[in-house]
Amino acid sequence: MRFLATLRIALRALRRNKMRSMLTALGIIIGVGAVIAMVGVGNGAKAQVEAQIASLGQNLIIVWAGNFSSGGVRGGWGSAGTLTLDDFRSMAREIPGVVAVSPETRTGAQIAAGSQNWFTQVVGESPEYFSIREWPLADGAVFTDQDVRGANKVAIIGKTVAVQLFGEDDPIGQIIRVRQVPFVVVGVLTPKGLSVMGSDQDDVIIAPYTSVMKRLLRQTTLRAINVQAESPEMLTPVQRQIEAVLREHHHIVAGKDDDFTVRNQQEIAEMATATSKIMRLLLFAIACVSLIVGGIGIMNIMLVSVTERTREIGIRMAVGARGRDILLQFLIEAITLSSLGGILGIAIGLGSAKILSVFAGWPTLISVPAVVVAFLFSAAVGVFFGFYPARKASQLDPIEALRYE
Asked: Of residues 395 and 353, which shows the higher confidence score?
């Protein structure tokens, strides 16, 4: 009963100064709302990146040509033709735990079909590429191993290329000219959207790697090799075996730099999410600063309230209230302010996240744990910043308090 009576007194004191109480809670409202909205935006960005990583396929390992040092000059991925078809065949033949392998070479080219033309990426792959990337066709059929052996002039196009070159017409069986070389369209890929780097994955033409190498590039080296491991647990062991096989084939001795780069899907995901992780932490830190500023505002107002109500405190003590009753009263006021601010902040944060998603087009993903933590943190701010003013009120001398003007 004593606690309920103290609670009623604290709430009555807050109601007497509604405007001041609302302004005091404003810092908490903004802080909690910012935490929820920013965490929602950060989680949405993370989920979007993870979905883009998943679009690469499952249990993927990518080997790039390059990452070499020569005469003090260091090159990047794909900067040197250091991967060969022998490397590709060795991976498929010698490494256990490998499900599928596809050599890759690519080039940019102006494509023409009828009166239309379009600049896009032409990628040479094997038929296994589509299972590695888990990329089914929307129409048509995948080219075959026989097409690879014969370097046949067949191609599968992405949705963007199909729209740009053929509009609403059916592209299957149509002729497209790549650097004046005619290719027959045998399939259209299912749309995948943007890649991790923000490029349009559907703006692509995929042909047998032998066709691209012999008919377009006239080269014998590869840009990359796509490897699929049989399970996530096999990613690291297979990656190490790939590195060992390539070092042996390329005669790289201990202490020398590799002339290739190997990354598995988990490493690619970590690199892609590193920036968004830093951004989420930064946004969360800024929101927490808002909460702390709100807590300081609560402490300031509670100290003012103690000064204004000194005679009231003295009267309560004179009629039997103990120091802990006074302490509890002011502590409840501070916690109530911060908790109400937390509840309103949650509502504003959820609304802000929804508005950003609808009008700004930002992906948002509300986290229930973040909502709970933000509310508990707001209540903790009330306890932390309200304790000192409450303790100061409880330690007032009753006689001095009654004489205070």
From this structure: 353
| Residue whose pair of structure tokens reads 């840009």 in the numeric block | 223
CA 346, chain centre distance (Å): 23
Where a domain ends, among 182, 198, 231? 231
State in Å, rounded, how far the first CA of the chain is from the last one: 32
61 lies in some domain = no
Does residue 322 fall inside a structural domain?
yes
Report yes or no: 153 and 182 within 8 Å, Cβ to Cβ: yes
Confidence of residue 73 (pLDDT cuts 50, 70, 90): very low
- Helix crossing, 18-54 with 368-394: angle to 10°? 150
Both tokens assigned to 281: 């932490």
Q: Which residue, 179, 208, 231, sits at the end of a domain?
A: 231
- Residue range 250-308, pLDDT digits in tens: 888 877 888 888 888 777 777 766 766 777 777 777 777 777 777 777 777 777 777 76
Instruction: Write the CA distances from 46 to 59, 288, 347, integer angstroms.
Output: 20, 20, 23
Strand partners of residue 227: 61, 101
> Which residues fall within 8 angstroms of residue 145, CB to CB, at 6 or more apart?
126, 127
- Say whether both 102 and 207 belong to one domain: yes
This prediction's pTM: 0.63
> Quick one: 397 and 341 in the same domain?
yes
Instruction: Tokens for 401, please give them.
Output: 């308090």
Q: Which helix (H) or strand (E) holds 18?
A: helix 18-54
The pairing of beta strand 204-208 with beta strand 116-125? parallel
Instruction: Compute the CA torsion angle 40, 43, 49, 52 (nearest 10 deg).
Output: -80
Sign, CA dihedral 150-118-139-106, equals positive
245 or 287, which is more confident? 245
Asked if 209 and 288 sit in the same domain, the reply is no
**Hey, is 13 helix, strand or coil?**
helix
Identity of residue 357: S
Is residue 384 in some structural domain?
A: yes
Same domain, 107 and 218: yes
Domain extent at residue 104: 98-231
Q: How many domains does the chain have?
A: 2
